[in-house]
Structures are given as structure tokens and as C-alpha cells.
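The instructor's notes for this session suggest beginning with a concrete chain rather than abstract definitions. Hand out the sequence below and ask the class to guess, before any prediction is shown, which regions might be ordered.
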Amino acid sequence: MKIPQMPLQYYPFLNQLIELDNKTIEDMVQSLKIVQPTLELEELTKTVASQVSTISQERISEILELLIYLYYLSNKYEFTQEEVINFMGDFLQNSEEFTHVNLNQLERFKHRLATLLESGGFLYPLSKAANVILDNEIIFVRYGFKKPGIWENSGNYAVQNVDPTVPESEKTFLELAYQWRRETRGISSTNKSSMHPAYQQIIGMGKAVIPLLLRELERKSGQWFWALKAISREDPVPPEKRGQTQEMIRYWLEWGKQKGYKW
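After discussion, reveal the predicted structure:
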């Protein structure tokens, strides 16, 4: 079968499914079985969050977004659920970003994914808007972009849609980050993606963007380690923790606080 590329913005969400405890996953599965379907992702997230108290509403929203993307795959490429799960398993095994995942974790991930997909089948209609999702509409929500709702199939959004109160340096960062995500979508090699001109321009902005990069890390996006190291010329992550995304994020955030950065 034809294998599509996996968008980079979903990498942190995959780590969440791997690292969450079994009780949280069980609670999510149960909540998806009883929740009333809605066309509003925000409302759906709130409803599930009311049933699952062990993780934040933001984390729940990210997992639901990932499920919507996977339903999109099954629809667009005519995949069975089993093929989607196998695709994700193959992706984890062959991606440099997930070399820390062992075989037991991989099997646990595939089992979790299967149960979530089975219980959340009503999310399928949301995948009809996946062309918007793949144009990073959901990413824009987190970066303060003003935009129509998920059901308005309005395509790409220009950087001038950023909230006008956002500083110019942050707007530049958002524009470059969006360009980088869009043009490196599906590149699993961090070394290759970090050589993209937009990523290099972000590095060229210097220490002014360190708080923005730390904010991205706090949102569980582990794609900015290279930029932080290049700008700060430091690496607070112990050698034994390299490759463990969540641990690397934790060390960098602690480093940022010690240096007095606010984000």
C-alpha cells in the first residue's frame, strides 16, 4: 500500500501515547465510549476531560487530534484500522525520533491505538476537515492565530492573521516555524529538518527567541533541541538521557528557569 508521510507536529502526541500510564488510557477509552458526539472539537475535549482527571485538557485535545489524523489516513488512503496501526508501528520503528522506544513499548502503543480508534469512531467525520488540519490549522490555535473553526474548510492562513498584540519578533518566529513545519513535513531525520533555511533563520534570530523555543518545548514539542543548543552553546541534557524526549524537555526547561528566562 502507499505509505504517506507522518507530519512532524504529531510526534509529541505519539510520545504521549507511549508514556501515559495504563489507568489514564483506560479512562480515555471509557470516556470515548460514552461521550456524546459533537462537531466541535473543543466541546468534545472538555467532555472527555471531565471524565479523565489524570491529564490536562490540552493533552487530551492533542490525542484526539492525532486520532482524527489517523481516521483521515484510513479515509484518504483506504486503509483498514489494522493497516493504520501497522503503519504507525512501522513509523515508530524506523524514525530517528523514536529510537528510545523498545519492542514492549511498541506493542503497548499499538494496543492502545487500537482500543482508542475502536472507541472513538465517531471522530471519523472530523477527519473530513483533515485537509485543514494538514495545513496546520490546529497548530495555529496554539500559536495565537485568529482563524475560523475546524469545520470551515478555508485552507491556509497567512501570518497576518496573528493577533496584532504579538511582538514583531514573535510574529517572525511564528512565520518561520510554520514555514519549517510545512516544508519539512514527513522528514523524520532531525539532522535533515534542522538544516532547512527557515530553521536556520530561527537560529539566526539569536537569544531573543530562546523563550519562544522553551515555550514550544513546554508544549511537548521536542523539535527545538538543536536550535537551543546552537543559540545558547550549552546542552544541559546528560548523555544517558539523550533520545528520551520528555526527559530532554525537562532538563531544558529547568535550564531555562535557572537562566532566568520567562515564557
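Then share the key points. The two ends are 44 Å apart (CA to CA). Confidence is low (pLDDT under 50) at residues 129-163.
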